[in-house]
Amino acid sequence: MRLDVARYGAVNARVRSLLPGLLGRSGLEGLYSFPSGPAMREALRHTAYGADMDRQAHVRARVVGAGLAIRRFLQVPERTLVDCYLRHHEVENLKLLVRSVSGAERWSEVAGRFVPLGEIASFDPHGLASCHELPALVQALARSPYGPALQGALPRLADAGPFVLEVAAELDHYERLWDATAGLRARDAVRARALLGLLYDVLNLSWIARHRGELGLSPEEALNYSLRQGRWVTSEVRRRLVEEQPVNWGAALTGTAYDRFVPELQQGGFEAAAPGLLQIVGRAARAELRGYPFHIGVPLGFLMLLDLEVRDVEVLMTCKQLERPAGEALGQVSAP
Amino acid sequence: MLTSDLERTARAIATHGVLHLLDIRQWTETTGAVRPFDVGARLREVQEVADQLSGLAALLGLPREIEPDGDVGEGPIELAPVRERSAAIDAEVRAVVRRRAELEDAAAQLSKLQGSVRALAPIGLPIERLRDLRYVSLASGLLPARNTQRLRESVARTPHLLMMAERPQPDGRVLVTVLTLHADQEAMDRALRSVQFEPVPLPMGVTGTPTEVLAELDGQLEQVRERLHAVDADRAAFAERYGPEIAVLRRLVEQERLLVEARGRMGASERIAVVAGWVPAVLAPRLEQAIRAVLGARCVLEWRDPISLDDVRRGRIPVPILLRNPALIRPFERLVRNYGLPRYNEVEPTAVVAVAFLTMFGFMFGDVGQGLVLFAIGYFIYLRMFRYRDYALILMECGVFATLFGFLYGSVFGVEHWLPALWLRPMQDMERLMRTAIAFGIAFLSLGFILNLVNAIRARDAAALWGRNGLLFAVGYWIAAGLAIRRAWGGPGAVTMGSALVWLLPPLVMILLREPAALVWKSIRGRTWPGATEIMALTVQSVVEVLDTVVSAISNTATFIRLAAFALSHAGLFLATFSVADALARTSGGTVWAAIAIVLGNVVIIALEGLIVSIQSIRLEYYEFFSKFYSGGGEEYRPLRLASSGTGRV
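The joint structure predicted for all components is written out below.
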């Protein structure tokens, strides 16, 4: 019999030691008070982001760095889940790779945008960036976890473009992440799914808004390019969302946890409601760090919180570059 | 040593298996003097032969793993004869294997055809008629199994008939057939395209209803399988004939691969080779003996204290760690490993962790009867479940400490009148119990501070010595603890608020001034003057640090009161059990029910309380103790080792 504490004791201690490094709302506000983008980067150097800033790495490297630091305190299957979760940054790398190969960009132009995955990397972006065509890239990735999904999408490359590869990799990744929860003990699986379910809901809302609204895909395609799993955004909700053009958020989301965001969604689209929706995810992730500490919610919740914070930092950096006023910029962040 | 001696020496080192190799490229002291060996070509060559042999083993259905035991070769193996021998066996086996592959391919084709015909079975029409449908469109093809549900959802509002093969293909896809009206064909196409549907043409060359075709295909498949069985028998004969030889070759090639990889970490100039690595001091004579046996006086052996190496001091080279603890302490290495191995020169805390864990466990779970039960369970696991021996030992040791504390509390299964209490009874002397818990906490935290000082001195790390949990913090904590103890004692000359402030002020002021003083010192040395903002920021930071220090010192100590709280809850659970038993004893057949209640109560207490106090003990170790001095992150000692006459592993 393995006890919870043996399974999660060390990782819990490690997460607690990393928690003070989170900036929080006040930290983000302080960050935005710096007068320019470079000054913000310099200020970040004096936070837990310091090491990544020194390496000129992407801010997202902070999540992966923290993830790698805590994963070694986990064992299979918990480590598998955490690895799988962290790999959404690798999927972002993959999407970037697809775009750079498709756009024939040089490695030196894109290198800084890749996030190193360290020991959990499934492929080496530098090596693959030399592929001249997308089919060659897919072939080179055949033995990676993304191989089957990319191979399956390849026949549609000619008529639908690189988009199909990106969406295939993304859907496949999140399916595998959900499957990874099945390996956990029952109560951990429930906890992980509750947390991931909220994230999947937000992803689904964002994707449906983009696929139906911006890209004008058919209802069938929009449905097929969404995640089947989630917490409140069920199959029926997704169906109602894709049925009308433009998306009728009110009809679909009434009765779910997200119905209070309907006015924002109707008026400003998904982007207007994104901070509020992500706050729900953040609150759930933070709740995992309270109370009984020996469960999967601790490492997973922490990594999700860190991901949300990194998103906030990226948003603030962009706003600073665009010289947006503080009120507007801070309205975009998800930290409560 | 001479470069020409390297091969034999490396082999001797690997056979003795005590040297953890250091990659010469990491060691800047040797930069320029020697170059790392370029083993790329040789490694590729060895790997190629290893792959060839693995492929041959796979062809013959031999085990994938390489047998670990066996003799180590004396010199580098000649790869050409191995390759030739492998090719010769391969040539002999290949015809059978090719025949097998053809039959497997034929079986797969027939199965695939069966699948596609089976998917059409619900329609019931002859297959030739499906090729010319007038009002409906038919699409048959493969799609990833996980996308089937997605397809169902996306076409739920489109009239259609979806048929699916029962079993997925080996590549994880399933064969589906969809019938839809011509009018809805476009929507169906969109849905199919977006679930990675790959169309498969209707089976050609077959006629008749699906049932008829399936019966014919079953017959053909049966014939193919019979032929496969015959070929498998031939293959088994080959495996029996060549299996042992292939196993030996694979082992030798694997040894060679390990040695070539190891050579890649060594360095050489034109004539001189350098091998560097780590060995536990006690094993150094054994290693020297092994090397001298090969080289005699034709080498220079230099033993260096790790801390004398600049690369180690600068943290460029980690020194591997070998944990060596007595058998009774060793199971607790798991707790330490979970947190991270100690770095070199960092105190190895397993023994302290073990003693503290057991003491805290016993304190909270003190009962002679339950302690003996725990010991018995541990002993049973120790005898019957080899894999869990570490846990069994921990359980037995917890049992011993629970029993010892049981004698101190005078408690046997919660009964307190069978034995005298050698120390106190928790429910009757709560105050003394709580004072003891706090005193234990102070001692335990103090040990953490001391170990931090030892680590700092060993690593010659001034920042750690004066930083958080360093000397100033430790002295401040001890003064505060001394004042608190004196005040708790009471009596004449007791501590007042004023005298406490007089004692505590100096360390607090020193902590407060630590950072600004460091900044001033740095400025004087650099002949620059820090900006006012910087001084202000540091001062504010120092004030916050002092406040944080005071609060965390209090909370870190107060948290140990949980030791007393759980000891009381343990006794409280016994009280509850006996109350239930008393109530049941007054009913008919009450004696039996009361006995059952007491037994069940004890089982629940052992399971529940045992779990909780373990968690609490680990929590106190990880949060309160480790955080004072321990960083972890050390590298494990993994010597280069080849199998030798049944010991070690390849």
